[in-house]
Amino acid sequence: MKNDVQTKTDVQMTEQEVSEKFNRGRKVIDFVGSKKIFFGVSLGIMLIGIICNFIFGTTLDIQFSGGATLTFSYTSDEEHPIDQNALYDFIQEKTTDKITTSFSEDLMGNTGKNVSVQFSGNDSIETDIQKNLEKDLQAQYPDNNFITLEANSVDASMGFSFLLKCLAAVALASILMVLYVTIRFKKIGGLSAGVMALVALFHDVAMIYFLYVIFQMSIDSNFIAVVLMILGYSLNDTIVIYDRVREERKLMGRRTDVGTVFNVSATKTLKRTIMTSVTTLTAIMTVYVLATIFNISSVKGFALPMMIGVVSGCYSSICIAGPLWVMWQNHKAKKKAAK
């Protein structure tokens, strides 16, 4: 009787047999069969991102490019309101450098607000410029209590060095993750599993990068933090699926088509993956909404790409890494059969 069961699991089975035997009769989703659709969606988004990159370009924050930042506090109420666009135009008129501004609420008071003015370049803020800008703002808006809170400057060479260190951290994290996957999943082709997990991670990084390009957000330390977090989140999803593939391959036998094994495994883990992603998205979305209400730009700059990264990480683990792993395994099997 045991030999009969073993023989049955070692031969090719129909989709219905697989569903009844290994997925409790529930329909098995054909992720591998839909790989062209998944790849097309990802390539289409990347193409849009590349086009936007040519149109808008990439903006580096002064943390990486060098420059200076002045932060002012001020009050704005119904009696003495300040239009943010008008304030930007006024500050821009007072300097020959290209500036960017970010506004936030002062959570310590109902009418208190902050504005950060960034000057790109390699020059520090001269004391005269700082004092003159503060005086100009006080003269233009005498009832809004403009006061300098902070003044910072970053040398361009130091900013570039910081960028290289951040990229090195991302590269090192990626390499260590691939090595971990390769060693842990030797029984299902460790190297192929590791390489395809890395491809999925690059996919997620690209999605986050193109988000910054499309929304014309400056690449800063938030970008590096989001990338590192999404690398871990996405890899965790991929590992869960690989782990299920390893278990299902034991049950279904090595002669069962790897595409079938992956489809069953991904179908079984789909509910868990979606629920985890939805829970994470809900928490991050709550943070983003609160940051929008209080106009906290630094938090919004972190939460928005995190939401996109969570969705991309969930998608790439199932729809990118898995089908690519199956393609690698099928190619290796054909080469072995040809010999």
Descriptive overview:
68% of the residues lie in helices and 10% in strands. With 339 residues, it is α+β, with helices and mostly antiparallel strands. It has a 4-stranded antiparallel sheet with strand order 2-3-1-4. Strand 2 and strand 3 (112-120) form a beta hairpin. Helix 7 (156-184) runs antiparallel to helix 8 (190-214), helix 8 (190-214) runs antiparallel to helix 9 (221-252) and helix 10 (258-293) runs antiparallel to helix 11. The longest helix is centred in the last third of the chain and has 42 residues, at 297-338.
Task: Pick out its properties.
339 residues; alpha+beta; 4-stranded antiparallel beta sheet; 11 helices; 68% helix; disordered N terminus
Give a nutshell description of this structure.
Helices cover 68% and strands 10% of the residues.
Count of extended strands: 4
Give me the Rg, rounded: 26 Å
Report the major sheet.
4 strands, antiparallel
Structural class: alpha+beta
Report how far the terminal alpha carbons are from each other. Answer: 35 Å
Number of helices: 11
User: From N to C, what is the helix and strand string?
Assistant: HHHHEHEEHEHHHHH
Q: What ranges have pLDDT less than 50 throughout 5 or more consecutive residues?
A: 1-11
Draw up the topology in text:
Blueprint: H1 2-9, H2 15-22, H3 35-56, H4 62-65, E1 67-75, H5 84-93, E2 99-105, E3 112-120, H6 127-140, E4 147-154, H7 156-184, H8 190-214, H9 221-252, H10 258-293, H11 297-338
Antiparallel strand pairs: 1-3, 1-4, 2-3
